[in-house]
């Protein structure tokens, strides 16, 4: 089972942007799609997060906060 942190890291690597009009369904779909593109292995997505953190440290923290908040909202509403 993936944690909120795991899901946020997957979302972080998706093409979604904080400025997009995002519904909980769109967020969950983006996570599912991204996991599929990583062969269902969240560790592959984590490697992309690490790369992005190194390549774009100035935007890493704000995007990760967005991803955590988006996941929390999307999955709280799914329950």
Automatic annotation (TrEMBL):
<protein>
    <submittedName>
        <fullName>Uncharacterized protein</fullName>
    </submittedName>
</protein>
């Amino acid at each position: 089972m993936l944690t909120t942190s795991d899901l946020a890291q997957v979302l972080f690597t998706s093409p979604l942007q904080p400025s997009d009009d995002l519904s909980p369904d769109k967020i969950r779909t983006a996570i599912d799609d991204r996991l599929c593109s990583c062969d269902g292995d969240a560790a592959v997505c984590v490697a992309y997060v690490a790369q992005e953190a190194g390549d774009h440290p100035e935007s890493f923290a704000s995007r990760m906060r967005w991803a955590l908040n988006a996941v929390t909202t999307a999955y709280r509403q799914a329950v």
